[in-house]
Write a structure and sequence with these properties.
binds NADP nicotinamide-adenine-dinucleotide phosphate; Thiol Ester Dehydrase, Chain A; globular; Aldehyde Dehydrogenase, Chain A, domain 1; 3 domains; 5-stranded parallel β-sheet; alpha/beta
Length: 682
């Protein structure tokens, strides 16, 4: 028996007293205790703010991303360590895989997001806003890491994934975290945090763990802290109404229970691939993790005429669910996470049974393989049917957090949409259909009440990630009952931990703050051509003023011949009536190409290649007889890491290509992307 410890203030600390007993969900044996009694939450939060925060804020997004990548690689290399302990939460191998490897995968994905942020400790968001006639006063937005601590209060069902999916995001943003897993399964989270701490990959103070209860922690929040909660709506609402959150203007992101549904399209009749997919997906989402998934299918919405077919086929599949000890060959579904959960789910099943009939499964009679049915927290899958879903509404309100679901009939697609929305806000729903009209009608009708919608058909089925998997790059959250949060997933998740600030000033000032050249800022035309400079030597604002070129009719003819682009406005002066052109106009692509001819310094040097154009606008027509020149300015630099030791050390340099005419007016603007060798090849 172990007394599971808390990792706080840089040490592993046992809580006072006996602690909460922790059990093996399969055998019912006590495996340890956890206590947080005696911990000073206020000190722990200060430690994060004073030690972890400053260390993380010094790092750039690229450095924080690489740190997360190193962490993910490390955890991946030792992933097998976690499976045996995970089984004690009642999880099968597949359930554990979702928790452990799904969690690690999430860290990898977040690490990759570094490429979408600047090589700075803060983010520069969006485009400059022009605020003045003469261009001497502009606006922009920067986003700096919040200087508080992220407090993650998690549910019991994913002790690893729940932690990793959240900390990956706050660490990328440069904010430290305190993780509070549900006490019931905290032993698995503790094991992973030990590995993370021992690896010394994260800076001190950036991750702390509270295994026992964290009641009272929210009373200590300060402005700049961020609280995320995953768990039951009841607890969530209680925590969210803490006056301290309002007083200190602390954001509270809630991911709560939701009564997700899966809808069978009218076209997906028996015999179609989609019908089979539906049965398979629903059965999977009912039984995986013994139904203890926030995204599990709780409501199965089916065309009235197909109810009987679904009932028979789903029943058949569910009857193949071997329940028992996950370490025994052939077991498909483990147990619930503990006896308390079993009682709670059983009570909810009884409540649901008052308004609808069970058509598969039984709370008492079912087989358990390789374990003692009475000692472990085992339950059978339970399938209900509801014959009057608009009046018997418990199925839309009561969440049994186990392998429990209800078949609900619908007559028209409008009814299906209405029923889906009766869940009052869900994390996810899916529709299985191969009819694009049905898909469109359903998705547009149901979207306002859902955080994510999967449209499943045969064409995407092989690669589909399924109804149940929130994706790290997509919104994870949902409106209404699901908590109202949508701050997780992708870049928007990271931005949730950053403070957006509008900045205003002269373009030269805004260039200095954003490290991106802003039109109108000072340019440095001294020194050698930028193509002669290595990555480290190029300064934002370094500019080459090129020679000029007189555009001729021959240029237009030659370019048309070479490219094959003989659009009338370039070729036929009699075709210009009703157009904006007064003469045969030069091809925009010719101007771009000629600009390259002017700004490129051709001899071999540090510039390795040009790999694209980000934005390109032709802002004024160029006619034969006009002269063009280029102001070629270093706009932004992004250092790149080496993949292999013998790679060339290099970085990306973005250049602003400003082509102007005899009047000094811009005729074309583009941003070109180059790769430039570093001086330091280490
Ligand atoms: P819970 O009872 O609401 O507990 C959630 C977390 O809140 C636990 O860590 C719990 O700690 C903590 N907690 C409770 N009272 C607290 C307080 N006063 N101060 C600070 N922390 C407090 O939920 P659960 O039973 O663990 O999880 C099951 C529920 O979570 C289901 O309803 C499910 O739908 C929902 N869920 C939702 C999502 C989602 O993304 N939307 C994901 C997973 C689960 P203790 O364990 O120490 O009490």
């Amino acid at each position: 028996m172990r007394n599971y410890e808390n990792y706080v203030l840089g040490n592993w600390i046992k809580g006072d007293g006996e602690g909460t007993p922790l059990f093996n969900a399969i055998t019912g044996e006590q495996i340890g205790t956890a206590s947080s009694k005696g911990l000073d939450f206020s000190k722990i939060m200060d430690y994060a703010r004073m030690t972890g925060g400053p260390a993380l804020r010094k790092m750039t997004f690229q450095e924080r991303g690489l740190m997360l990548k190193a962490l993910a690689l490390h955890l991946h290399s030792i992933k097998n360590k976690f499976y045996a302990l995970s089984a004690k939460t009642g999880a099968t191998k597949i359930d554990s895989w979702i928790d452990i490897e799904g969690g690690i995968g999430n860290v990898f994905t977040n690490a990759s997001l570094r490429k979408q942020f600047p090589d700075l400790p803060y983010h520069v968001e969006g485009e400059m806003a022009p605020l003045s006639k003469n261009g001497t006063f502009i606006g922009h937005h920067i986003m700096t890491p919040k200087q508080g601590v992220a407090i993650h209060i998690n549910a019991f069902n994913f002790p690893i994934w729940g932690m990793l999916e959240k900390i990956a995001v706050n660490l990328m943003a440069g904010v430290p975290a305190i993780v509070k897993p549900a006490t019931l399964t905290c032993f698995l989270t503790e094991m992973m945090v030990r590995e993370i701490v021992d690896s010394e990959i994260l800076p001190k103070g950036s991750l702390q763990l509270i295994c026992g209860s964290a009641r009272g922690i929210i009373n200590n929040v300060e402005t700049g802290d961020i609280v995320t909660f995953t768990g039951s709506a009841l607890t969530g609402k209680m925590l969210k109404s803490n006056p301290r959150l309002i007083e200190k203007a602390v954001s509270f992101n809630m991911e709560a229970d939701s009564l997700n549904c899966s809808v069978l399209g009218e076209d997906a009749v028996p015999g179609t691939a989609e019908f089979d997919l539906f049965i398979k997906e629903v059965q999977k989402e009912m039984t995986i993790k013994a139904g203890q998934k926030c995204t599990a299918v709780r409501r199965i919405i089916v065309p009235e005429k197909l109810v009987e077919d679904v009932q028979i086929c789903l029943g058949k599949r569910l009857s193949k669910t071997t329940i028992g000890d996950p370490s025994v060959e052939g077991v498909r579904m483990g147990s619930l996470a503990g006896k308390e959960q079993l009682k709670e789910v059983s009570d909810k099943v009884k409540q649901l049974a008052q308004s609808q009939d069970i058509i598969f499964g039984n709370l008492e009679e079912f087989e358990v393989t390789g374990a003692d049915k009475n000692k472990g927290a085992f339950i059978s899958p339970i399938l209900f049917i509801n014959d009057d879903p608009f009046n018997k509404t418990d199925c839309h309100n009561v969440e049994a957090f186990g392998p429990v679901s209800t078949i609900i009939p619908y007559k028209t697609i409008d009814e299906a949409i209405e029923l889906a929305k009766m869940g009052k806000g869900s994390l996810v729903c899916s529709i299985v259909t191969n009819n694009m009209k049905i898909a469109e009608e359903f998705v547009l009708g149901a979207a306002s009440m859902h955080g994510r919608i999967l449209v499943l058909n045969e064409a995407c089925s092989k690669e589909s990630t399924g109804h149940g998997s929130p994706m790290p790059l997509l919104t994870h959250g949902g409106p209404g009952r699901a908590g109202g949060g949508e701050e997780m997933g992708g870049i928007r998740g990271i931005k949730h931990y950053l403070q957006r600030t509008a900045i205003q000033g002269h373009p030269t000032t805004i260039t200095a703050l954003t490290k991106q050249y802003q039109v109108g800022a000072e340019q440095n035309t001294d020194g050698p051509h930028t193509f002669r400079k290595h990555f480290e030597e190029i300064e934002i604002g370094d500019t080459v003023i090129t020679d000029t070129h007189l555009v001729t009719l021959d240029n237009i003819e030659d370019f048309a011949e070479l490219s094959g682009d003989k659009f009338y406005a370039h070729m036929d002066e009699n075709s210009l009536d009703g157009t904006i052109f007064t003469e045969r106009v030069a091809h925009g692509y010719f101007i771009m190409s000629k600009a390259a001819g002017l700004f490129v310094d051709p001899a071999k040097g540090p510039v390795l290649l040009n790999y694209g154009i980000d934005e390109c606008r032709f802002t004024k027509p160029v006619y034969p007889g006009m002269t063009v020149g280029v102001r070629f300015t270093a706009k932004e630099k992004i250092s790149q890491e080496k993949r292999e030791d013998d790679d060339i050390a290099k970085g990306i340099v973005k250049f602003l290509v400003d082509v102007y005419d005899d009047e000094g007016e811009t005729v074309m603007l583009a941003t070109i992307l180059t790769m430039v060798k570093k001086l330091d090849q280490k």
